[in-house]
Write a structure and sequence with these properties.
about 375 residues; alpha+beta; 2 domains; two-stranded antiparallel ribbon; 12 helices; elongated
Length: about 375
């Protein structure tokens, strides 16, 4: 099958332009530093680069060759910037422009040597794609699902294609053309470029959508102040734990805890200080729990802890450890060290068919109020 190169060229150019437009529509209303704006700019730069390539053979000037490759390099630099912004990384700055600066430098040094320039430009693109791939596989960054895998697969394939093209140029296997009427090898590159533009944009947009869904989930299921599960989420976790313990005849314990005299902290130091105390106590509690344990903010200054496969004795031991840890960990607020204590109620043992999540919480809550009535900063069951 003979590929129609002009048609492919127009398709790639129009697709890049339209995709840039639709990504810009998605980014509309977002700040200028949003990653989607950088990605839209990358697609636009690629489109303009294609338009310059179309002028090769129509003029004796080197502008179409150099300018086209410069814009392709700019597109890759903007893609790298988009990935960095998505990952909330800083410090890219001038480093992204370094490969970009090599294109005009090579053009000045090797003007008239088309094959050498083609090889050097291809090498620059390989390095730029390698930098994007490095950012995507960085273990220090949060990883984002299937969109990231689409990007990795597509960009990895493009990099391999460019390596093959570099080898072909070096060995003289690829014909160097001065116009749009390229040979079938270059026509195949146009076809693959068409697929690549669609795939990388789909991957990046999908990655941003996955992150938005994750944020929405966190807003629905997490307490934003403490970072713990909110009441709805910890309630769902408790119901699941009760059902599992009933099916398997397992032990299960519940701790209900409340910060003592929390109103005095708010009144004496202000609500921001109270928020800091809440956050600090939440972190202290969470740091002393096992991986299978669950903790959530149940109310204003109340926390609920679910302890799977834990009997009453183990729950009482842990509760006392948590009480002592909070007492020994005051919160620093400016020049003040705000001391706080907690009262804990415990309900634990073998879960039977008669037990319910609400019943367990009610029993632990009653025990917690007995702890408060007995003087606070203590554990009752």
């Amino acid at each position: 099958m003979k590929l129609d190169v002009p048609t492919l060229f127009v398709a790639v150019t129009l697709l890049s332009l339209l995709t840039s437009l639709w990504v810009s529509v998605m980014a509309w209303g977002q700040p200028s530093r949003d990653a989607l704006w950088a990605w839209a700019g990358a697609l636009l730069a690629f489109c303009l680069g294609n338009m310059l390539f179309a002028l090769q053979g129509q003029t004796s000037s080197a502008l179409p060759l150099v300018g086209g490759n410069l814009l392709v390099s700019a597109a890759l630099a903007l893609m790298q910037l988009a990935v960095w912004r998505f990952q909330a990384r800083r410090g890219l700055g001038m480093w992204a422009l370094l490969p970009l600066a090599l294109v005009p430098l090579f053009a000045l040094l090797f003007m008239g040597q088309t094959r050498v320039l083609l090889g050097l430009f291809t090498l620059v693109f390989i390095v730029q794609i390698g930098l994007i791939l490095g950012a995507l596989v960085d273990p220090g960054q949060k990883q984002h699902g299937r969109g990231r895998y689409i990007l990795l697969a597509t960009l990895g394939t493009i990099a391999l294609m460019l390596v093959a093209r570099l080898v072909a140029v070096v060995l003289g296997w690829e014909a160097v053309s001065t116009g749009v009427e390229l040979d079938q090898w270059q026509a195949m590159l146009f076809l693959l470029t068409l697929v690549a533009v669609t795939s990388v944009t789909l991957g990046f947009v999908y990655m941003t959508m996955e992150r938005a869904e994750l944020r929405n989930f966190e807003l629905a299921m997490k307490d934003m102040l403490t970072g713990l599960s909110n009441r709805r989420a910890i309630g769902d976790q408790l119901h699941a734990a009760v059902a599992r313990a009933q099916r398997q005849g397992q032990l299960l314990s519940v701790l209900m805890m409340d910060i003592d005299h929390f109103k005095r902290i708010n009144d004496g130091y202000g609500h921001q200080a109270g928020d800091r105390v809440l956050h600090g106590i939440a972190q202290t509690l969470q740091s002393r729990l096992r991986a299978q344990d669950q903790i959530g903010r149940f109310g204003g200054e109340e926390f609920l802890v679910v302890l799977p496969d834990t009997g009453l004795d183990g729950a009482l031991t842990l509760a006392e450890d948590l009480r002592a840890a909070v007492e020994a960990t005051p919160t620093q607020w400016g020049v003040h060290r705000i001391e706080a204590t907690i009262s804990i109620g415990v309900r634990g043992g073998v879960i039977t068919g008669a037990d319910t999540a609400d019943g367990l919480v009610g029993a632990a809550d009653a025990a917690m109020y007995r702890a408060k009535a007995a003087g606070r900063n203590r554990v009752e069951h």
